Amino acid sequence: MTKAGQSTITITKNLAAPAANTASAAGLLKILVAAQATGSAVQWADASVSAEAGASKSKQPYWVTLSDTQAKIYDANAVVRYLYRIWALPQEERFSIEQLLEWEEKTLCGIPTDKEVETVVSSAEPKIAAIRAKGDSSSVSAIDAVLFGSMYYALSNAKNNTLSTYPALQKWYSQLVSSEAVVSVLPVYSANVVSVLVRAEATAENRKVNGSVALDLNPSGIVLPKEGEKNVLITSALPYVNNVPHLGNIIGSTLSADVFARYSRARGNNTLYICGTDEYGTTTEIKAFEENLTCQELCDKYHTLHKDVYDWFNLSFDYFGRTTTEKQTEIVQSIFLKCYENGFISEDITEQPFCETCNRFLADRFVEGTCPKCGYEDARGDQCDGCGGVYNATELINPRCKIDNSTPVVRNSKHLFLDLDKLQPRCEEFIHKASSDGVWSANGLAITNNWLKKGMQPRCITRDLKWGVPIPLDGFDKKVFYVWFDACIGYPSITANYTDQWEKWWKNPDNVKLYQFMGKDNVPFHTIIFPSTEIATGDEWTLLHHISSCEYLNYESGKFSKSRGVGVFGNN
């Protein structure tokens, strides 16, 4: 029987049961605990036999239908709000609960992996202590239900010595896990989720691969080009360090390059496979601002996370580095000065968005708006995720500052440009030969030719930022290099951190073939801007031989997006 004034909800099972370490499983536990604590009745239905079967195209493992309105709810926290009638509480109490729910959604929802238990408990400890100090510890509140659902998988697998460091959290968890509301629903919860399978560490013995394909590389051996042999240099597009890599990144650049590297080694080719995290630029400043960290702290955190994900996939990098190094600064500035001395750098005044609230020029990733080419409403300041178009930030329609959402004004700022127009003839000559000899992917060649047909224009290579490679010219001390000028230089600088003899790979065009793997949005930077920069130095660089550029991996009819949290991620 449903108690007077309380609810009946129907949980409709759709698709397969969620894994216990997913946000969907955490949401199910939140709902079951909240329903039991509020005396609400729970009914179950199966979408495959229910009258609702054709009524929803949801790809969620379940949804909740309210008995009084027949409304369908897909968000677990919304169901908890409904069951506890949070909207009817006094304003101050309601506001306090909503603040905690918002914190949970931003901080805990979708976390906890085995490696992040410490992160979970350390962030939750002060919140739990404050909650228990104010509330009735004998009852299960809405916040209790939500936090318990979010943290159950992590805490149930945590070691005792981990929890003992956080007494408020340990006491709260012990009380809840033994409460009637939780004890009675855990069997129901367990019956409707699937256990997490622990993957064995990949070894040569338990993987069904050709024994001659390198799995364990010799970390003490430095691979250098050899005269008279086929020397293959392979790079994966350097992933931005501002977030967790997703499946699109892995399939598009690292996994595909890894397969080719293994194949090349198995063929007996002298092979070097290089990758690393791209750590400078606006995206890092934004993420550091959001997480209240310094840029270096953020880079250190996510570099380790990226490395852990790629290690889990057992990717066979010879060296996985990063761009925030002295070698990066040294090589970027050297390349720039040679371009400058050779007459391929010019100065100009540009119009830039300026946020009067923040009192700063807004670099590309600090401004968003509507794409001037396709109308995509969430376009970034330098490139559209909808159509892949590249433009200036001042061309955005209805621009907004990403920090405070205010409308920026346009002001003038002096910048440096790489004169691509002067380099187009030599760049076209390189593209014609390399795309033919190296058999470029169809989309890579099409994107490159489209740039050439429009005519290569001078490209701004500086930004009004603090986090980046300093510009070694007087009058530009408050600016840094644009990330897409220095990012590709990360390939040789990462190699330089691997071996002081890096030029044997990167300045050896007669004996080394360069193979580069990436998503299609990175193509023009690798086929036009980076090769043009190399040509402008006058040095004999190992230019691109073959490019493998994949299409976007879609997620429920939309693009994977690391910056927007859309997709399947490496720590899921």
Q: Can you describe what's shown?
A:
The chain is an alpha/beta fold and 572 residues long. Helix content is 40%, strand content 17%. The chain has 19 helices and 20 strands. The protein has helices at 23-38, 76-83, 91-107, 117-134, 142-156, 160-164, 167-177, 180-183, 186-191, 247-266, 282-291, 295-312, 326-341, 420-437, 442-454, 483-486, 490-498, 503-506, 523-537; strands at residues 8-13, 41-46, 62-66, 72-73, 231-236, 270-277, 319-322, 345-355, 360-361, 367-370, 379-380, 397-401, 409-418, 459-460, 462-463, 480-481, 512-519, 544-550, 554-555, 558-559. The protein has a 5-stranded parallel sheet with strand order 7-6-5-17-18, sandwiched between helices. It has a 4-stranded mixed sheet with strand order 2-1-3-4. Strands 9-8-13-14 form a 4-stranded antiparallel sheet. Helix 11 (282-291) crosses helix 12 and helix 15 packs across helix 19 (523-537). The chain is elongated. The two termini are 39 Å apart. The model is unreliable at 1-5 (pLDDT under 50).
Task: Give a brief description.
The chain is an alpha/beta fold.
List keywords for this structure.
19 helices, elongated, alpha/beta, 572 residues, five-stranded parallel sheet
